[in-house]
Amino acid sequence: MKRALLILPLLAVSLSLSSFDYYKPVPTNSPFFQGGPSPLEIGSALKGALQQGTAKSANLLSAVNGYFGNPAVKIVFPPEAQKAEKALRGMGLGKLCDNVILSLNRAAENAAKDAEPIFLDAIKKMSISDVSGILLGQKDAATQYFKRTTTTVLAAKFKPTIQVSLAKVNATKYWGQAAAEYNKLPFVKHLNPDIADYATQRAIDGLFVMIAQEELNIRQNISARPTPVMQKVFAFAAKTAH
Prior knowledge:
By secondary structure, this protein is mostly helical. It has helices spanning about 1-15, 40-60, 80-90, 95-110, 115-125, 130-135, 140-170, 170-185, 195-220, 230-240.
């Protein structure tokens, strides 16, 4: 714990507040280092890990079937519409329901292509306390940081893309048809025919699910740390946490 508390003031001396691209040299014989990584190494390793994890997550999800083929993030009917789905399938409209689900996922896959630059910007804007908190924090500390700092930006960027994608892959039409058919039934709560907000939120949720998986992988598996400095820094963080 004592070593962990020393990291924050050391980073204050050696890291730029706005990004990890500039460092001031710190004497290598500093008594605080004694086998541990230098602030330069900490910044470099953390930046590399975050770029690696977010890029991989965005690339996986933006591929064809990135959402649709992954049960952990696949977008299905909204919870309030699952009764409607069951009723529609019972009416022989299963194909219409399948088209809605596929179209929602295709729209999310298109939107995920815009995610990586947003995460890179968040990495550049990290404060010194963010760096320390992520490295020595909980196993999902980086994911939580991105949730706090990028959710609003992601929603603003994703929604227009998703709206266009929904129209392009006919999701708007399919959902509108599904809602219209269900709303004809007596004594049911009518469905909102606008599905864009729901699809946007689920697309973002899925992105964070994948980032959390990548973060845990980097923290726990040496093979997920491709550079010596990443191996050194995350090994130090694991040792310090104990």
